[in-house]
Amino acid sequence: MGLATINVTFSKIDLKDQLYSLTFDLEANTNETAYVLFAFYQKSLGLYSRTEIPMQFDEKAWLKFRTEKFQAFYLSWRHHSKYGSSLETFTHQHFPMDVYETPRVIISFNNSLLLREFSLSSELPTGFVASLIDFRILSPTELPLELIGDPWFSKSLTVSFRVVMVREQNAMRSLLVYTIAPSLCVYWVAAIVQLKGKDFMDRLKIYVGAIFAMFSYILTIRNLAPLGPTYVELLLVSGIVSWGFVESVRLYIET
């Protein structure tokens, strides 16, 4: 019997790749030798990779635990490690509603402990927040199929979770206006020009100006968006291409 504390730090600084890292600071307060097991889901294999690690005994630390009925003194065992891998969900093309999600992580102590505290901290780009999703304390029957029946989990404290990173609500709203408004303007100007524009050269000047404005705008998006084309950029480009096609057909008819 004893208590466990889990502190996890999620780090993702560069939006232009799928890599992330998790730093674990664990403490087990128990009078038995403590081990911890990590299991990380590997999407490419459809399996969990697992590692069992002995925790380090801290001679200078101990815990006094008291309730109304009893009190106990526990030794302190600690573990610190860092794990890096690729995100399972990486929807950069959905900017500014992009989502970044880790695969499932399982942490299991070999002792029958109670979870005293679980905390998540993060190191993220400006405008993002990270939170836990699908956090659970697993019983032996709730484990993934490949882990059910493993003697390790018969009397262990096992937690399971994923971490998701999304944009802050205010940042998402402002970016939505910033990205959608120019796209609508392109289609609106194109429609006005087709309805009102009589002279081809005047329409051509407006069209060329719209192309330069579009590329200038895309260059500014590149400073905010992850690597790779976004749906906003594709919407803009498709609007310009459609406009050019309509102009070509109209010029052909007029001549």
Structural class: alpha+beta
Overall outline: elongated
Mean pLDDT: 86
Assess the beta-strand content as a share of residues. 35-45%
Q: How many beta-strand runs?
A: 12
Instruction: Work out the radius of gyration.
Output: 28 Å
- Name the helix and strand elements from N-terminus to C-terminus, one letter apiece: EEEEEEEEEEEEHHH
Distance between the termini: 89 Å
Q: Helical region count?
A: 3
Main beta-sheet annotation: 7 strands, antiparallel
Q: How much helix, percentage-wise, in residues?
A: 25-40%
| Count of domain modules | 2
Low-confidence regions: none
Detail the topology: elements first, then pairings:
Blueprint: E1 2-11, E2 19-30, E3 35-42, E4 47-54, E5 56-66, E6 71-86, E7 89-90, E8 100-101, E9 105-109, E10 114-123, E11 128-137, E12 157-167, H1 169-196, H2 200-222, H3 231-254
Parallel strand pairs: 1-10
Antiparallel strand pairs: 1-2, 2-6, 3-4, 3-9, 5-6, 7-8, 8-12, 9-12, 11-12
